[in-house]
From TrEMBL:
Keywords: Cell membrane, Membrane, Transmembrane, Transmembrane helix
Membrane topology (UniProt): Multi-pass membrane protein
Name assigned to this protein: LysE family translocator
Pfam families according to UniProt: LysE
Localization terms from the record: Cell membrane
Signal sequence residues: none
Main location, first listed in the record: membrane
Transmembrane regions listed in the UniProt entry: 43-67, 79-95, 115-136, 143-167, 179-200
InterPro entries: LeuE-type
Keyword Cell cycle: no
Length: 201
């Protein structure tokens, strides 16, 4: 390994600390793991990983500069992301207990929905900006370095995201009554809606 990639150790620690701490993705993964189980939450997790990979690579290759020059684009994305997050919060809060089948609410987040949300997720932006500003090697191809760093970051992130989905699945095994399920989903919905404050502040 080239000496310039000795930073991968600190990168792993940084990504683990950021991914394991609460945020919009982790709240929604917990709710999904509880309501749909681990397997059906896998596309949601994969979408987060794929979306962050694209976002982080794009930041390194100039997307961050574009937003600095045209702040209206970022502002519009924030409002769009906030509206979408509130919609997801409503879906989570109003979801019926898992034992009630056939509801239009009982659909986990898809790969593309989760991936698209990362571009409006402030925590993902903070992670990506700090990652590329602090750890991107200066030597070699900028494109290759960005792809390697973003890819390694998401390789580390995947098991961390799985912890939250697994946590939700464990909660799902513990909750027994329909009333408890409705209360849990309402709490998860409110926590998801509260993340809008992070986006619009």
């Amino acid at each position: 390994m080239s000496s310039q990639w000795l930073v991968l150790g600190p990168v792993a620690l940084y990504i683990m600390s950021m991914t394991l701490t609460p945020g919009p993705n982790n709240v929604m993964l917990t709710a999904s793991g509880a309501n749909f189980g681990f397997r059906r939450t896998l596309p949601h997790m994969a979408g987060i990983v794929g979306g962050c990979f694209i976002l982080f690579s794009s930041i390194a290759l100039g997307l961050g500069v574009l937003f600095e020059r045209f702040p209206a684009i970022q502002l519009g994305l924030r409002w769009l992301g906030s509206a979408y997050l509130l919609y997801l919060a409503w879906k989570i809060a109003s979801a019926p207990p898992p034992n009630l089948k056939g509801s239009s609410h009982s659909i986990p987040l898809t790969f593309w929905q989760a991936a698209a949300f990362q571009f409006a997720n402030p925590k993902a932006w903070i992670m990506g900006l700090a990652l590329m500003a602090g750890f991107l090697p200066e030597n070699g191809s900028a494109v290759v370095n960005a792809l390697i760093l973003a890819g390694f970051a998401e390789l580390v992130a995947m098991p961390c995201l799985a912890v939250w989905a697994g946590f939700g699945m464990a909660i799902g095994h513990w909750i027994k009554s329909d009333g408890a399920w409705r209360a849990f989903n309402i709490i998860m919905g409110l926590l998801t809606a509260a993340c809008v404050i992070l986006i619009l502040r």
